[in-house]
Design brief:
The chain is built from 13 helices and 13 strands. By secondary structure, the protein is α/β, with parallel strands linked by helices. Helix 3 crosses helix 9 and helix 11 packs across helix 13. The longest helix is centred in the C-terminal third of the chain and has 20 residues. It starts with 7 loop residues before the first helix and ends with a helix.
Length: 375
């Protein structure tokens, strides 16, 4: 029995009728850019996150870049972010004209810490991006205290944390602005690229919307050829908005399925010589990924692959060491550099069965025994 890393088809099978209906609605409407389908999803996603404003955009990367630009962050500014994140977080900072400043992570959660951020603040620091990685939110209480004392703004990269909470607050709602990706593999995934910016700041939301739409002042008909700033084409397609609206009512149940799978993993892996990424007290993870740290990672992955079990690594090279970003002045970040050779992401999706989890755990145990027996 093959165990896939992610089974999007099983999720779509649940909502096939809703997706088909959404496609027909958009196709028949003739309105593919903006309009009621986008507005409907923006309202629903804002309500879900517990904020007053949502702007649908073309991708999670666009969400981060536009949020930074709307905040006036650019050339001459530094933005603190964890080295353990997808390249897009740093890419958005660079696209906005600012400079990424990387920090190390907590060895148990692999998330950035308030203490690490505090130590990295310089006179050029303008913002910090809290990356809620693997589905788990950063300790936002501690981070906000540090940011407030330093007079810098906090943004949330919640691309992997749809529906996750920190002490009862939804990811994306705990700072000045939250940014989401709806890439197909996310907990709430589009059928293509899509993203969103959420905030309680009306002026900021309007600025993001303008930047995403050629610098137009809004959605007014008389504003189509009025351009109040230099923006770009970063809009959310009506079709993707309609598909996301069809899937959103199922997100809580799908997240519950992921949490159930995570509990099964915790029990099945308890006696093995590995370290699951810990969930901090106060966090409810959406378990976008199931990540463990272990010795002999590459050998274990090879054995699992031969046994029909798909795995991945998130991420094999920390951002500060990637060819596009590395330099002689790149900082030494020992926790993330060590973890990069030890982390392994296991199959994780809402429909993962008890037997599949047991099979993965058994295969890991056999692979570790084989690896440890080698000289």
């Amino acid at each position: 029995m093959r165990v896939p890393f992610l089974d999007v088809a099983a999720m779509h099978a649940e909502v096939e009728a809703e997706l088909d209906f959404a496609w027909r609605q958009v196709s028949r409407s003739g309105r593919f850019i903006g309009g009621a389908f986008v507005e409907r999803f923006e309202t629903a996603w804002a309500d879900y996150c517990g904020v007053t404003h949502c702007v649908g955009v073309a991708s999670g990367t666009a969400a981060l870049q536009l949020a930074l630009e709307a905040l006036g962050i650019g050339p001459g500014d530094e933005v603190i972010l964890p080295a353990n994140t997808f390249f897009a977080t740093a890419e958005a900072v660079l696209a906005a004209g600012a400079t990424p400043a990387f920090v190390d992570v907590d060895p148990a959660t692999l998330l950035m810490t308030a203490a690490g951020v505090a130590a990295a603040i310089t006179p050029r620091t303008a913002a910090v991006i809290a990356v809620h990685l693997y589905g788990q939110p950063v300790d936002m209480d501690a981070l906000e205290r540090v940011a407030e004392a330093a007079g810098i703004v906090v943004l949330e990269d919640a691309a992997q944390a749809h529906g996750a909470t920190w002490r009862g607050r939804r990811a994306g709602s705990m700072s000045r602005v939250g940014c989401f990706s709806f890439y197909p593999g996310k907990n709430l995934g589009a059928l293509g690229d899509a993203g969103a910016v959420v905030t309680n700041d009306r002026v900021l939301a309007e600025r993001v919307r303008s930047l995403s739409n050629h610098g137009r002042p809004g959605d007014r008909q008389d504003g189509h050829y009025q351009h109040v700033r230099v923006g770009g084409t970063h809009r959310l397609d009506a079709l993707q908005a309609a598909l996301l609206s069809a899937k959103l009512p199922h997100l809580e149940a799908w997240n519950a399925g992921r949490r159930r799978a995570a509990r099964l993993y915790e029990q099945a892996l308890a006696e093995l010589p590995l370290e699951p990424v810990r969930t901090a007290e106060g966090a409810i993870s959406s378990h976008h990924l199931a990540v463990v740290q272990l010795s002999g990672r590459d050998n274990v992955r090879r054995h699992l692959g031969e046994d029909g079990i798909d795995t991945a690594v998130h991420y094999p090279t920390p951002c500060h060491l990637l060819p596009a970003l590395a330099s002689a002045s790149s900082p030494k970040l020992p926790v993330v550099e060590r973890a990069a050779g030890r982390i392994m992401s296991l199959p994780m999706f809402p429909h993962l069965t008890d037997s599949a989890v047991a099979r993965v755990a058994d295969a890991i145990g056999r692979a570790l025994a084989t690896s440890e027996a080698r000289p």
